[in-house]
UniProtKB/TrEMBL annotation:
Coiled coil location: none
Domain HTH deoR-type: 6-61
Annotated source species: Streptomyces lanatus
Transcription regulation among keywords: yes
MF terms in GO: DNA binding
Pfam families per the UniProt record, alphabetical: DeoRC, HTH_DeoR
Keywords: DNA-binding, Transcription, Transcription regulation
Compositionally biased intervals (Pro residues): 257-268
Name assigned to this protein: DeoR/GlpR family DNA-binding transcription regulator
Keyword Transport: no
């Protein structure tokens, strides 16, 4: 028996969410020629069936898949990541020494720190290095090591040895998933070991993760963080997961996310400029 029209549409939505990571309600409405409320009902059904995790303005597939590259992840939940980065930057004071992980959301935080004064930033991520390399008011330390091309971050014994010679006021970590029971998830045991070491060297530990990453367990490598760490996420985060994290002593901070593209003018048309 062939699927109904609504079921076929949901199957196609799931395929899009799996291949692109994030799909907006408005885009889906235009693609399938139905109203936004119909798309929202589809997303609610897929979420109730455990096939999707709702995100700001769209959905992300929950099915297991290979590790995405940093380039692929950069466009996911863009508005939420930007809001999380802004909220995280507000935690940083003048004259502090901070440690930045690799990853797209932490890379967005590095961008927000370009206007900082008298700041020292150590990082394991190429994105943060690129953001801050030309900022004269920020002193940058690169924790080198073995480069993972997918994450654009350094790992391994050289990175770990460099950490032993520094302490930090704050560390900001990225993650592929968060579980109240297990901690934060990554694709590689070298990454989770490094995150644990990074957390031990800082007075304050933050994890930056948009809503779709909460409750996700895409891989089997986990980092356990010290008690009292802070999660900065967006308002679409699952309340039950947030409650479970809070019960374990995690401080939860919700970043204020503006409506999609609220503070971005529409790009000029016909300019012939290449995509960023």
């Amino acid at each position: 028996m062939s699927p109904t029209g609504s079921q076929a549409r949901r199957d196609r939505i799931l395929h899009l969410a799996t291949t692109t990571g994030l799909t907006s309600v408005e885009e889906l409405s235009q693609r399938f020629g139905v109203t936004a409320s119909t798309i929202r009902r589809d997303l609610a059904k897929l979420t109730a069936d455990g096939r999707l995790a709702r995100t700001y303005g769209g959905a992300m597939a929950l099915t297991a898949h290979p590790e995405a590259s940093l380039r692929q992840r950069t466009g996911e939940a863009f508005e939420a990541k930007r809001a999380i980065a802004r909220r995280a930057a507000a935690e940083v004071g003048a004259g502090e020494t901070v440690l930045l992980d690799a990853g797209s959301t932490v890379g967005a935080l590095a961008h927000e720190l370009r206007s900082a004064k008298e700041l020292t930033v150590a990082t394991t991520g190429l994105t943060a290095l690129q953001e801050l390399a030309d900022v004269e008011t920020v002193h940058v330390e690169c924790l080198g090591g073995t480069l993972r091309p997918l994450s654009q971050g350094f790992v391994g014994p050289l990175t770990e040895a460099a950490l032993e010679h520094m302490t930090f006021d704050r560390v900001f970590l990225g993650t592929d998933g968060i579980s109240p029971e297990h901690g934060i998830c990554e694709a590689d045991l070298r990454q989770t070991r490094l995150k644990e070491l990074m957390a031990r060297r800082a007075d304050h530990v933050y994890v930056l993760a948009h809503a779709a990453k909460l409750g996700r367990r895409p891989f089997h490598a986990w980092a356990t963080l010290p008690e009292g760490w802070t999660l900065i996420t967006d308002p679409d985060a699952d309340p039950a997961t947030l409650d479970a994290l809070s019960e374990r002593g995690v401080e939860v901070v919700l970043a204020e996310v503006p409506p999609p593209a609220a503070d971005y003018p529409a790009p000029p048309t016909g300019s012939g400029a290449p995509d960023a």
